[in-house]
Amino acid sequence: MADITIIGAGNMGGAIAGLAAAGGSSVQVLARSLEAASAVAGSLEGASAGTVGDAIAGEIVVLALPYPAVAEVLGAYADQLDGKVVVDITNPLDFSTFDSLVVAPDASAAAEIAAAVPGARVLKAFNTNFAGTLATGSVGEAQPTTVLIAGDDTAAKEALAAIVTAGGLRAVDAGSLRRAREAEALGFLQLTLAAQEKTSWGAGFALI
Amino acid sequence: MADITIIGAGNMGGAIAGLAAAGGSSVQVLARSLEAASAVAGSLEGASAGTVGDAIAGEIVVLALPYPAVAEVLGAYADQLDGKVVVDITNPLDFSTFDSLVVAPDASAAAEIAAAVPGARVLKAFNTNFAGTLATGSVGEAQPTTVLIAGDDTAAKEALAAIVTAGGLRAVDAGSLRRAREAEALGFLQLTLAAQEKTSWGAGFALI
């Protein structure tokens, strides 16, 4: 068993794995490529690496994937996610236009995921944090990084918050899973501001 | 003539009037009650007070009103708003539930206002700033207040930004008026966090 499974070994997956390991959690990192997963897990105490398709070892499963890659991974793991805490970190932007989200206006990526795996306890988290702010613990030079966590299952939110705070960051309960819509709007706005250099990729919005 | 007309003499109207006056703008404050307008204008250099229905003197018109009050004021002034810069500051929450906005999911209050007064140059601004952060110039103790300005008319955005920066705050171009939707989501999320004491009414999200 592991405390947390991170599916995805990109910048966000690596930062979340590092945060969890820093707090003393045992971490399983799964990626399409074992090499990529090993590159993340190899530098962390108590972390293991594997490929997508391996059995999920963690009670908390972070989908550290771009939005278009989520459906396939959910399909591969649907039967293993009942009762698990599943964490959606996506910002479902239309990157061809940078002018809208690809989910329906009254929906959210998190709501779609919750509908796809109804037995899972789905949370929205980390989508308003740039990877650099998770790694350094600060937004810009001096403001503590806050991880907003939205979801309908209080115990699930507390479990993720415990990992975040053990890793040295602040966790804030952002309300029900319906607030994922606003969190995705915030993530979207923040990405457009960074892309236009109105903020930096190591900064963004800090909750004061 | 005045540089800017503020319609509404509540906390936000007072803070925006104070900001504009601090930057040297001439300010007209209009409210339902002359007493309320005078209470704001009386303490500001170069400010005049009047009631809703008086002729608009400013080139920039800030609707410092709660969302439900906007339609009536637009109706009263529709013929005077052609060519004006009209600034929407609303957060159109359903305050009975605190769980959704009252505008359509694919719309925004700003888009509705732009449709209602097609001759005006509509901007979304100030809705992500608590009044206290406009008055003090800081989010919490130390982070400079940033006013996000979204709109389709670059010159209009620049005119409002000039007033904001003259008053000592930072102004950031947040993109087209389509970004009002995300700004309203951010304002909504921020209000729910303050109502739950996850942040304070003198703080919120700071753009770092």
From TrEMBL, chains A, B:
Keywords: Oxidoreductase. Residues 4-92 form the Pyrroline-5-carboxylate reductase catalytic N-terminal domain. InterPro entries: NAD(P)-bd_dom_sf, P5C_Rdtase_cat_N, STEAP_metalloreductase. It holds the Pfam family F420_oxidored. This is NADPH-dependent F420 reductase. It comes from Herbiconiux moechotypicola. The lineage of its organism: Bacteria, Bacillati, Actinomycetota, Actinomycetes, Micrococcales.
